[in-house]
Task: structure prediction
Amino acid sequence: MRYYLLKLAISALLIVLISEVSKRFTLVGGLLASLPLVSYLAMIWLYVDTGSSQKVADLSWSIFWLVLPSLSLFIFLPLLLKKLPFFPSLGIATAIMFLCYSLMVLGLRRFNIIV
Result:
């Protein structure tokens, strides 16, 4: 149980740190948010939990491919914010992102890149 609390505390601390830094320095907040900190932690937790380098390699490969559709959020959100309020823009950009994820997963499965 302590282990899960430690994982939760470290993960939450990163989110709070990035949001607080972003209030003052958006560029630094953007830099911190763009770092693959969550992926890095997930790989560490996965390795500690399983001891499997192969599982970490598979996770890393999947992350690589699935970063691409996530970029659609950062493309469409600023464009939508020029015309719509924040929450509708975020909702629409998120829907577009999920569509891009779906298309990417279908394509990756079709070409046997990931399972």
Summary: The chain has two domains: 1-35, 51-115.
